[in-house]
Request: fold
Amino acid sequence: MSFLSPATPKLAPWKVLLVDDEPDIHDITKLTLNRFRLDGRALTFLHAYSGAEAKEILAREHDIALVFLDVVMEREDSGLEVARWMRHDLKNDFTRIVLRTGQPGQAPEERVIVDYDINDYKEKTELDRTKLFTTTFAALRAYRDIMKVEDARRVQVSYREGLERVLAASSHIFKQRNLKDFASGLLQQVVALLRLEQSMLLRLKGASMISGESQYEVLAKIGEFGDGIDPALLAQLDEARHNRISKLYGDTYVGYFPNNSGKASLLVLQGVEEISDIDAQLLEVFCSGVAIAFDNILLNQEITDTQAELILRLGDVVESRSNEAGNHVRRMAQVCHLLAQASGLPEDETAVLMHAAPMHDIGKIATPDAVLLKPGRLTPEEWEVMKQHPTVGLQILDGSSRPILKAAAVIAHQHHEKYDGTGYPQGLKGEAIHPYARIVAVADVFDALSHARCYKEAWPTQQVTDYLREVAGHHLDPLYVDLLIKNMDKAVEINRQWPD
Reply:
């Protein structure tokens, strides 16, 4: 028989579960099927002597191909209960079940096969050596073919999920911080197509002259790669980058994919036996697409960064004119970013707020020096002049369609509103005040109290915390006050990084 082979198989054996309360049946079955082979794979046997034992093994082992199942064991219907449990409770529709009984009258064949999703039904007396072989062969071949279909379905699902991620990322590819989403979706597609489990996509940074500094940025990874890049893998990446070629190192494929702008992406695929011409073309298209997307994002990022830098410098001019400390606007931007993240704002809104916050006092550019720089207390008339700067800020920034400038206009107009409605210029209250303005107000008060001014010394952190609790619900939104207090260590670190 072609499925018999004396050679020791290299592939994992087929798992067969023998369920019978007669030990002799186990021994005879093992002896008879000892030399069985299908696709170069032998059999390995698991043993259960009751329905309860069978359930334990089936719940533990998820790749059993075939169960020889006795009907009558501890109870007259123990085997039928195991079959029902497998299909309905365990949701195992793949394992083939061959029912064996020494008492055929106990379980009529037609009813059992129809009602219990049994794949074959044999009386023990008819299972001679030849019948046992042919029954096992037919059952395992059916299991093999079913699993091939199931594997193909899983690959298709994985491919579809990857495609969905690519489409979702592509819909906003020009927004900030979406390159990694885009790369992750594409990487998932390639892994699905090549049926791998570990892959990593890297971006080649500019060549570094500093020893030990990484020249690579990890854009996406699937599998266990750890936090850093393994020294052996790093040497392979360096070789691919230096020679500008793709190469297979054992079971690790390192692909080098340059684009027209002179930049390059590197793809690491682990567990690869070989890369066919079709696979290589797919990978080239894949990495070229990522590289082009990266270039587009960099161009858009440069525009955004330029806009943010101009806003920051203009904020510096306004603050320096009013004798504020030089790094005030930088600290405020970082604390606003911290609070926005802690509150769960979407990442794109968090970035917009961080870039817009430095413009909160832009309206002071129109405030007369006699009022803005007055060292003493303002008169009621001078205070009315000072209170005009939020409206002036709105007038300067209003009308722009750019997200950062639109946010800056709202912040400039509303950051002096108070949570209890006693602020200015509109007397807004509670959530009628835009979240951006409420966050900026908390950051502004925190920074003013934490640093020395011409009229006061810097307050210690505990005193600042106590004051914030005191004004929460009155001047400031208690939600953002609470978030700042919970993240006070990070806010203090921001102060340390950007000192006066």
